[in-house]
Amino acid sequence: xxNDIDRxxxxxxxxxxxxxxxxxxxxxxxxxxNRGLTLVxxxxxxxxxxxxxxxxxxxxxxxxxxxxxxxxGATTVGSEPKLLDQLxxxxxxxxxxxxxxxxDTGRTLRLVQQQMWSLGPASVRTCVLLHKSGKAVCDVKADxxxxxxxxxxxxxxxxxxxxxxxxxxxxxxxxxxxxxxxGSG
Length: 185
What we know:
Blueprint: E1 5-10, H1 12-29, E2 37-43, H2 47-54, E3 61-69, E4 82-85, E5 95-103, H3 107-117, E6 123-132, E7 144-149, E8 154-155, E9 171-174, H4 176-180
Parallel strand pairs: 2-3, 2-5, 5-6, 6-7
Antiparallel strand pairs: 1-9, 3-4, 8-9
């Protein structure tokens, strides 16, 4: 895998430190740990982030999963996102925190936010590991952001290209020739 990476953008150590700090920020926003929090995770890219984040959250929580499709196969160009699997837990009256791996165009996050608000929660906030500054549409914001990054195609720590590289422990920039030869970039 390392041979496919142009450069490492964020090391696993930097990720670990920032995830712990994010958990503290989130815990400070929800001061009543007994009130509870429902984490709604967007599959599949954010599962590693979620697993690490919840280890540091001293809050009673439920976890819900939603599946959204934005990228089909070996492509770096997103299509209009589609909700593939609905949330299977009740969030009415609950505080909801949507967890996603990356805020890029904002279309996926907007879709999930709209879906959550339609279910009658007490509040909806968002947490993303990565945010590509300047790319997201102006009406989509993340309340908690791990790292601001450049506009590069990144993989690792759950992020993939054609379902590969999710297990790469760092966040790295994929060599352009790998996705360009697929005819997608």
